[in-house]
């Protein structure tokens, strides 16, 4: 149970209920972080708009590579909710989620492409304290993805650092997306992060 309890649908106002309906339609259930953040309606609406806008802004880096980098951040920071949700997104993107169990070996594993290795290494460098990104690393990313791609990766990795740290701090835990019924949603219903 989160440190701050979520708002039940029956207790939510009309706007929050409408957002819950959208989330339920998209993900099969309302993600628990939504319900917790609903305790602060203005922050909830700001976060929802931001997530949708950030999702739509990504065009330079293939979505599976972004999702893998985001997943790595969640895994490194130990956010069980983010790992759970990220696993579902990867599954519905048609990726082999079994390889996520071995992401620590991404540098040498033949299951990861060069682009994926670059993105995951960047996620690692951005997630360490202090940040350990190098000029050479960014130069290599620019060669591979261009300036817009580097900005997309940087933004999404930074955003996941915020999510994972926030959800972990509030003790929001996995919800069964990666292994439960929600993971069995038809692929057409899962179109992106949105959480």
UniProtKB/TrEMBL annotation:
UniProt organism field: Actinophytocola oryzae
A Pfam family the protein falls into: CMD
Keyword Oxidoreductase: yes
Name of the protein in its database record: AhpD family alkylhydroperoxidase
MF (Gene Ontology): peroxiredoxin activity
Keywords recorded for this protein, A-Z: Oxidoreductase, Peroxidase
Domain Carboxymuconolactone decarboxylase-like, first and last residues per copy: 50-124
Superkingdom: Bacteria
PANTHER family: 4-CARBOXYMUCONOLACTONE DECARBOXYLASE FAMILY PROTEIN (AFU_ORTHOLOGUE AFUA_6G11590), CYTOPLASMIC PROTEIN
Stored InterPro entries: AhpD-like, CMD-like
């Amino acid at each position: 149970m989160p440190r701050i309890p979520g708002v039940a649908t029956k207790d939510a106002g009309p706007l929050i209920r409408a957002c819950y309906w959208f989330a339920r339609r998209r993900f099969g259930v309302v993600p628990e972080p939504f319900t917790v953040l609903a305790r602060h309606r203005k922050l909830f609406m700001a976060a929802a708009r931001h997530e949708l806008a950030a999702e739509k802004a990504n065009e330079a880096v293939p979505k599976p590579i972004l999702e893998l980098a985001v997943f790595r951040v969640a895994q490194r920071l130990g956010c069980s909710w983010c790992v759970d949700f990220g696993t579902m997104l990867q599954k519905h993107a048609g990726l082999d989620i079994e390889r996520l169990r071995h992401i620590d070996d991404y540098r040498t594993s033949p299951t990861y492409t060069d682009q994926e290795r670059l993105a995951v290494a960047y996620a690692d460098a951005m997630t360490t304290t202090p940040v350990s990104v190098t000029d050479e690393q960014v130069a290599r990313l620019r060669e591979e993805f261009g300036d817009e791609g580097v900005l997309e990766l940087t933004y999404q990795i930074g955003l996941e650092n915020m999510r994972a740290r926030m959800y972990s701090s509030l003790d929001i835990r996995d919800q069964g997306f990666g292994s439960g019924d929600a993971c069995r949603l038809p692929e057409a219903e899962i179109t992106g992060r949105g959480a």
